[in-house]
Amino acid sequence: MTLYDNYSVRTQRLYEALTTGKGLQGIVDIAAEVFNNPVLVADTSFKVLAHAEKPDTNNTLWQDIINTGYYPSNYIRSTSKDDKVYAQVFSTDAPKLISDGVSPNRFFCKMVTIRGKPVGFATCVENDTPLAEQDAGLFKVFCDVAGTELRSDELMAQGYHRRWDYFISEMISGPVNADFLEERLRQVELRVKSCNFMLVAEFADEKMRREHQMAYYGIALEQLIPDSCCIAYRNSLLALISRDNPNLFSGNFLTEILNHLETTEMLCGISHCFRNIAEMNIHYKQAVEAIRLGRKRGWDSRIFDYARMSIYHMIDIAGQTEELRAFCNPKLLDIFEYDSNYSTKYAQTIYEYFKHNRNPAKTAEYLNIHRNSIDYRINKAEELFGLEFDSQETAFSFELSYRILEYLRELPFTTN
């Protein structure tokens, strides 16, 4: 038999695997025989869907994957940052043999698609029989066959695996019919509570594209956040957090999320707390806006809370049509000018005074000066500029003015 005839026979076997009625596992079993090597198919969350190998497979990484049903997180982290491997796996070109420096064997790895949309990937490891470059076309056929089989799974075709995954995507994509919302919640078996939040996570580097790894990152994030449902959405993660307690940052939540964001090199935005699940789309936009504003203002943080950022959102909107400095209290601008002329620190003292709820002792502690100095500066500023800081109107006007100047990055002193 010629090399061409052998290739044709093996290709025919792969195509015929679709007709066996044994599903994805049957196709993978035949592929393992065709390549005479271990073969597996996993979804985009790095969960193994089907695998086949001989009992004497000696690849320890492979055995770890098969025994747990998932790719190890440390392996995913190390390979996900390898742009060369990433480009080969998710390229539309013919697959190439990969050596990633972590796996002890070379392997083919290629995305599996449904109507052009990646839903997983297939791997064939060089263990029993040496793989050759001419096997690349055959492996591509196998990936196409696997994608055809998976197309019959409606949820897999959508890229979501749980009933509520598609529901959440549906809710944030546009207006929903609130009349049927309760019935939809029952259909997807999603139980929502009285205190809900939307959390969105994006890569700190806006140019980074990792859509095909987001499902895995989403599972890791969901495991960190109790009472959450997390999905991959475009090139970001989106989580619906539903609790009875409105205090989202209680316990170890903040530390654990920060560690996860550091590891994945991501930022996150968190919406206001909301009760009406029909408003999910509004609060999704709040979380996205919190990240956008955090980036715009250059805040050195990985978590942006819309509860804190909403004032800057309003300022941002106002700034699209008006000169923002016109909204500032003119007496505050006079104080800045006075400080500049006489080397005083009235503006900063007043800023910290309001920031610390007009508590002189806490303000003095923060500025590392005596309490009496705070009292003196506040009283002197009131006298010099005709102010009454106990007035609600004055307090609001000054606090808004400081936020505007923060937004414009025109405060001459450092803020946290």
Structural notes for this entry:
Helix content is 50%, strand content 14%. It has helices at residues 3-16, 23-35, 60-68, 73-80, 83-89, 136-150, 154-158, 163-173, 181-188, 214-224, 253-264, 280-297, 306-319, 330-342, 346-355, 360-367, 371-385, 392-407, and strands at residues 39-43, 48-52, 107-114, 117-125, 195-203, 228-233, 236-243, 266-270, 303-305. A hairpin with a 2-residue loop joins strand 6 and strand 7 (236-243). Helix 1 (3-16) packs parallel to helix 6, helix 2 packs antiparallel against helix 6 (136-150) and helix 16 packs across helix 17. The relative contact order is 0.07. The model has no long low-confidence stretch (mean pLDDT 86).
Rg, please? 29 Å
Task: Please state the structural category.
Answer: alpha+beta
**Strand residue content:** 5-15%
Largest sheet: 5 strands, mixed
CATH architecture of the largest domain: 2-Layer Sandwich
At the fold tier of CATH, the topology name of the largest domain is Beta-Lactamase
- Please count the beta strands (DSSP E, at least 2 residues each): 9
Give the low-confidence spans.
none
Strand order, largest beta sheet: 6-7-5-8-9
Highlighted features:
single chain; 416 residues; alpha+beta; Beta-Lactamase; Alpha-Beta Plaits; Arc Repressor Mutant, subunit A; 3 domains; four-stranded antiparallel β-sheet; 18 helices
